[in-house]
Design a protein that fits this description.
Blueprint: E1 17-24, E2 29-31, H1 43-55, E3 58-62, H2 63-69, E4 77-80, E5 93-96, H3 103-107, E6 112-117, H4 119-127, E7 133-138, E8 147-148, E9 159-166, E10 173-179
Parallel strand pairs: 1-6, 1-7, 3-4, 3-6, 4-5
Antiparallel strand pairs: 2-8, 7-10, 9-10
The structure holds NADP nicotinamide-adenine-dinucleotide phosphate.
NADP nicotinamide-adenine-dinucleotide phosphate binds next to strand 1, strand 2, helix 2, strand 6 and helix 4.
């Protein structure tokens, strides 16, 4: 598929979309540890990610990744935690346990929800049918260790490739998928 053959997801203008953003090594790792900063991703991916976040009106993120933001969370951020009430509250940020909370209801006011990760966040949104699109940026690096992209799944999910873009000369590749139902 070339750049000019980009497909668009099957969507209506009014439809709610859940869109995951993942930066990965070639061996499918998103981080070396739970606290490691994302300092191995390219400038081009960072720019893409920031531009995409501007299009979203709500965000879903795991507690560790949220803590890495150090108070820079955007409005309408929903943070997954098993212990939401034990966490200090912040303005515009809602801590929820997705095993208990009614996620569909909580997120119903929003049109485009950015799923920021980590692995169990991506997986639980996928498992609950709350993931429509996935952007995966593959950086040309091998870790051989670290956090996997998705974690704890119990079944396969089919994807349709919508586009492939090379972002820079070193070979960072951006893949865009639609999750098939
Ligand atoms: N490359 C990328 O695209 C990307 C994306 C996101 C994150 N990261 C990196 O990944 C690292 C953090 O990874 P992480 O695996 O520790 O992920 P994380 O999802 O940020 O944090 C994990 C924590 O979130 C809560 N959580 C996540 N899913 C949950 C669920 N389904 N139910 C209840 N609680 C849930 C739990 O918090 P409690 O312990 O409070 O219960 C869990 O301990 C950081 O280095 C970050 O920079 C990279």
């Amino acid at each position: 598929m070339t750049r000019s053959q980009r497909l668009t997801p099957q969507t209506r203008a009014s439809e709610q979309r859940f869109v995951a953003y993942v930066a990965s090594s070639v061996d499918g790792r998103i981080s070396l540890s739970e606290k490691a900063p994302p300092d191995w991703t390219s400038e081009e991916d960072w720019k893409f990610f920031q531009e995409e976040l501007e299009k979203c009106d709500a965000f879903v993120i795991g507690r560790n990744t949220f803590e890495g933001l150090k108070g820079r969370a955007r409005p309408n951020t929903f943070v997954f935690s098993r212990y939401p009430s034990a966490t200090p509250q912040e303005k515009d940020v809602t801590f929820i346990n997705p095993g208990i909370a009614d996620l569909k209801q909580l997120l119903s006011p929003f049109r485009r929800i950015g799923i920021v990760g980590g692995a169990r966040v991506y997986q639980s949104m996928l498992d609950q049918g709350l993931l429509n699109e996935i952007y995966v940026t593959i950086e040309p690096i091998l870790f051989g260790r670290g956090r996997e992209m998705f974690e704890g799944g119990t079944k396969d999910h089919g994807l349709k490739l919508l586009s492939v873009q090379t972002l820079n000369k070193k070979g960072t590749v951006l893949l865009h998928y639609e999750v098939l139902r």
